[in-house]
Amino acid sequence: MAHSVFLPIEIACLALLAWIVLAFLGLACIRQPRIILNVIFPAGAAISLVIAVVGFMALTLQAQTIILPLGLPNLPFHLRLDNLSGVFLTLLGGVSFAVSIFSCGYFRNYNGPKLALVALQYHTFLASMALVLLADDAYLFMVAWGAMAVASYFLVTTEHQVPQNRSAGFIYLLTAHLGAIAILFSFGVIQGGHGEYTFDALRQAPLTPLWSTVAFLLAFFGFGAKAGMLPLHIWLPEAHPAAPSPVSALMSGVMIKTAIYGMIRVIYDLLGVIQWQWGMVVLTVGAATALFGILFALTQNDLKRLLAYSSVENIGIILIGLGLSMVFMGMGHPTLGVLGLIAALYHTINHGIYKALLFLGAGAILRSSGMRNLNQMGGFIRHMPKIALFMLVGVLSISALPPLNGFASEWLIFQTTLQAPALQSGVLRSLVPVTAAILALVGALTATCFVKVFGIAFLGQMRNPDLKEIHDARFTETIGMAWLAISCVVLGLLPVFVIHLLNNVSLSITGFGLPSDAVDSNWIWLIPTSAARASYSPIIFFAVVISAVLITIFLVHRLYHGRLRRGPAWDCGYPEQTPRMQDSSDAFAQAIRRIFGPVFKATRHFPSPDDTAPRFSVTVEDKHWAGLYLRIARLTTFVSNQLGVVQQGRIHVYLLYSLVTLIALLIFVQ
Amino acid sequence: MEIFWILAIPLTGGALLAVLGNRDWAPEFGLFLSACTLVAAGFLTAHVVSEGPFTAFNEQFFVDSFNIFLVALTALVAFTTSLFSRPYMRIERDHGKVGVKALRLYHSMFQLFTFTMLLALLSNNMGILWVAMEAATLTTVLLVSLYRTPASLEAAWKYFILCGVGIAQALFGTILLYFAAEKILGSGGTALLWTHLNAVKPQLEPTVLSLAFIFLLVGYGTKVGLVPLHNWLPDAHAEGPTPVSAVLSGLLLNVALYAVVRAKVLVDGALHTHLAGYLMMGFGLLSVTVAAFLLSRQKDIKRMFAYSSIEHMGLITFAFGMGGAVASFAGLLHMTVHSLTKSAIFFAAGHAAQITGTQIMDNIRGLIRQSPAVGWGLMLGTIAILGIPPFGVFASEFLILTAAMHQTPWAIPFLLISLGVAFAAIFSKVQSMVFGETTAPRLSHSPALVPVFVHLLLVLLLGIYIPPYLAEWFHQAAQWIG
Amino acid sequence: MNTLVSGILFQVLQSVLMVLLAPLLLGWVNQCRAWLQNKKGAGIFQPYRTLRKLFNKDAILANNATVFFQRMPYVLFACMWLAVGIVPVLATGLPFSPAADVIALVGIFALARVFQALAAMDIGTAFGGLGARREMLIGFLAEPAMLMTLFTASLISQSTSLVTIVDNFAHHPFAIYPSMAFAAAAFVMVMLAENARIPIDNPVTHLELTMIHEAMILEYSARHLALIEWATSLKLTTYICIGIAIFLPFGIAKAGDWMALPLAIVALLAKLAAAGAGLALLEMVSAKIRIFRAPEFLSTAFLLATLGMLTHFLLEV
Amino acid sequence: MTIPLSGQLINLSAAFLLLVGFAMLAQRRILSLINLFAMQSFVLVLSTLIVAISTHQHHLYYSVGITFVLKVILIPWLLHRFIRKLNLKWDVETHIAIPTTMLLGIVLVIFAFNLAQPISQLSGTVTRHTLGIAIAGVLLAFLMMITRRKAVSQVIGFLAMENGLFFAATSATYGMPLVVELGIALDVLVAMVIFGIFFFHIREAFDSLDLKHMEQLKED
Question: Is the full-model pTM beyond 0.80?
Fold first, then answer.
């Protein structure tokens, strides 16, 4: 086997190094953009594959550690490759492979310097994410975490001429920084006073329940800020539209997942003893995040903003899974907790893949048509059938429709919620199913949202017919999207394998696994706890639907005729069918805005009566801005204004300060 | 012997330049002198590394793990600064902001300032240390007012008076110290030698020493820029020529803090209480918080980074006050990375101001377009100074914060808020300066940005790898700082 | 082995039977409606005639219709077929049943709905979009309510697989579950909404202000329309069957139990007839409500279902 | 106990120093302020001389010499030249509230005595009781710098502070080591020169030495 020569972790380190080297090669090739496109990015993709393979191998291997002679004098860099990091490395490798390939085509119209910088930051970004997953001591983790934030920040501000992009970048880095500080402090709490910062030491460190709760809260805040949970999500819908689409794909697909990784690492692995109250916190926040995210996604018109909000929603769903798992763990039902954990991990992977796919699709549309606003799109399926196909796969997956992967993971989460009777306290027993209700609502809303996306963007008539020369995805772009689409289908059809692999993870970090029924079940039947409770077989499902369709077609054409004529669409008696008669994206979301009115801050712009080409438009704002962030900003300025008075220019006053200080201190000492 | 050279070179150089400073080759000559000083410092460092701490010239001079790295740092920053100031001052001359005589003054004073810094570091005599600190003020005060603008004069005057008064308090502290030491060591020269004082510190009279420390703290603290004694600092940084701001932030503050720490060691030894520590922590926290909040209202780029210097000095003071091996180590590391980063930032900021012809940040835009090197230098420097990994500033902040985590948890909220506010304040401004579009013209001389990137590279290196011998010094120093 | 064969036979039998019966049920409902309105009615076999007529016609597609539009009817039909094949109507323990539990069942309906809505938007007419939008609106309100009702049942019988649920209710000593009352009420409301019946939608009018389901299929003709109509009747049947399976599962045979089969069939027919008549009665006594009242209606259903679940936890555990 | 004659003389001169300190605090006219400063320096020299004679501290003789040359002759002369050059001869401090300043001064003096109490207990010098007065001198000079509006008078305050420190050194410890004394002296001299340069710069920038012009740099 490969790792008889090289340990997987060593290969991982080498791959990481190779990425960094590529980054600087990219910078060196500032004059030859061709080389960057045709050599650097494909090479990066190859490395991604290596990473993916390593991560996959790690899923079945024992944890391996390695210590690099770098870092702080008494805290060298510790690296560790275990099953948990394996999962996320696989995700990183798999997604970044597709994205790198896609980028070869996507960045073709960038000029030399810009492209070189992108190549530099892009590969640094990849390397730092891998490093986050491999880090085994607090310092290295923080370093990698920060490098990740900085690299992605520069990628977000690639188009820094646009003012919104600058502010987006600023908000993003600010949130990331605050989060990082919180995480740092949480590590500081966990190590409990003996100043050892390797993760092993943190695992051993004894903590009082109070302090571990403090640590949990800090970590939850810090990682939540990166993951985009309520109310720290504001950076996401700003940064994603600003960044180049492949980068948005990476950020949504992988980067915010590293925050989930961090949560699992800290809560399950480092803290170990989980209290059910934590679970409730995570559960509530998760539910709120999911609902809020999807409601806002529904009301967006900018495709990438919409996708960003839907990422918020999915993070919420993942948090629901985690929260359930923590509740069960805390209440002393580890096996059920494991189910929740696996569901969360599974959904993490799935979301990583289909969200990356959707962002790449959005990018392809943007590059070929220059459009991000749904209200202007329409009928693209006739010009970009390939993109449409892949987007359809992504849409069906994210809408949690069987038999694709989104459904599989949400199904598992539902199963977890249905284990509520096992809980002792009646309150929890009745609260947990409510989250199930919210999850159901969110799922249905997601379907609505993405019907809107696909229907408005690809179906119907072209909204502005004068738009010429829009063409389909380029070759490399196609490969990138195809890769992700295929993995969506595979992950949807073979959940059992995934479950078994993830079971190793939970065994290695919590020490518990799924019940025997689930583990022994063969590859057709997905059985969470026991066959009698629930079972699901996407393959049979898929086979039956397909065959049913074929049979129907066959019968219909056999028993009757297959004659078909084409004609103009029925025009309802109007003289003509103009594209403007179709539902716009605004119109589609109108019912939502009306039903969930209180959530939004919607302002409608009516056309004036004597407007020859009247357009009705509506803008939806996030209430958190005015409600929370602007207040904080105002408070800060107030304080600093108060302090500014101290410095009022007269040297006598300054001298007085020193005299007073001196005397005060002298009195203090005496 | 190295000590002799290391002091003689800048002194004689300063004297020479006072006469020849108006020649065209004066900048190159100054550069040469700084290079020589750096080499001498290198030799001295090698000497200490090989033989450990030693005293020289019948104990008047003293080198140990604490001051040697500061000596090396000082020589290095002095060298890079003169490297930077060569084109910078020429551009200033082309812009007609300074005349030939002013340049002569500048070159000679720069060397003398280096001399005073090194003297303060190397001297074993607390009295001489004081003399050197005062001399440092005297050498820089005329540089602050180099442009003769009303603002610069005002800044210089405040700098002069406030630091003069402050330093006077320090002198009184020194007298008290001498007074206490004389009891044990007898009167005469040796009673102020730090090595002797350190040897007998447990016997020193506590009440006197606590008073002495108050005076020393207020005195040297004024030069460190501790709130509320800091008022001279932003003005001087903003109005003086950029190289001066760079060395003020990069060297002077460090050396002043060095003096405070030396005093703290004695007082701790004598008092057996944590008084000095608490005082320093108090000043440190106050400085960090106030500076962080004042950052957000700055309009002048150099003034803003001056406040950031106050903030970081506060953090270092806090670290030393906290004490303990980790915290002191972190403090030393932070001293190093801060002076490297901050001087780098000032270099970049200076060129930025020259490019756009203003120091008002609202009028500086799109640096990255006009001169990518300046833009990236400023951006990366800012990211480094804000303590974002993988830069070295983060390494030290990591240690400080985690140490504070279990030594003084009550301080955490202040630090948390301050760091957040400082980040928001600085980064929002720098970002809008670096990015965006611009129409600024090119510079008459190509800017020297080698120093910027050398410094940043070093800082980056310290973030991911600290050389063993450096770590060794820091450890030793941290040991006896306690 | 033998059980498997008989199981598959049962499966096939049930699927085919239900597919063939579905239009009849629709006809029966319409006939009852007519009777209740003192009309003579078209007779209960009218739907079959309609289907035959439609199948024999030539299909017309709009010029810009894509493959979506063309294939949607088949997908729709297949989904409904699968759904009705999963629900244990005649007998439990069918080989397909474990392939999809109640959640997957809801998933199937969602799948069908999404495809229908997309197809409706394909042509780009005003009505298509309007219909799709309203359909999704009803959908995202009805689906959670549906799930909640099913969850109540599955919490009682500790399982989400319909077979186990039916077994639990049918072949265990009878017990009164107050929560099921809530669930039943919610289920009926959801069923009305999902099948485009009064008071949410009116299957017989094409009044543009009110119509939902019809708006989506305005562009369809001939065999495509026929399949859609058939699928609609299948959907109605499936819902009723689910209701039967959960709320009155008595008389459902075990798989391979040939003796119990006739009884099961009779029981099923009786239940379907009763349910159809009941449905007609409901539609008679209630009036169509405004589209923006629909959310209130459905959120009430959702509330009832959730209440049912809570009552289960408060009273029955 | 009875204090030896030298001690009495020193205490006398100390008292005189304090008096002069208050006089400077009250003095409005700059010219006489300079003279007062010279007088204070002279008293300082005297007292130091007495100490030197009475305790045979040879290095004190040097510092006596330095101080005499520097503070009694050179600096007053320089100051006189400056104000002649800048013709500030009749320049007076406007509106300073003398009575309040005096009161503050007295408070400071009391504080200084309390501060000096414990230290004087420890001191073995004949001059130990004058330490309090030295501190008082420093603080009074400080107060003076705070209250004065003119650059020159602020500088004089600064020098007075230097005097106070010097007096403290002699009274507490019979003076600092010689090296330090020399260094301090050098610094004071250079400082003086630089102050001079500043006067001219400020003058040409603001055509007045009033500090009220130099209040522009602030947080607005």
Answer: yes
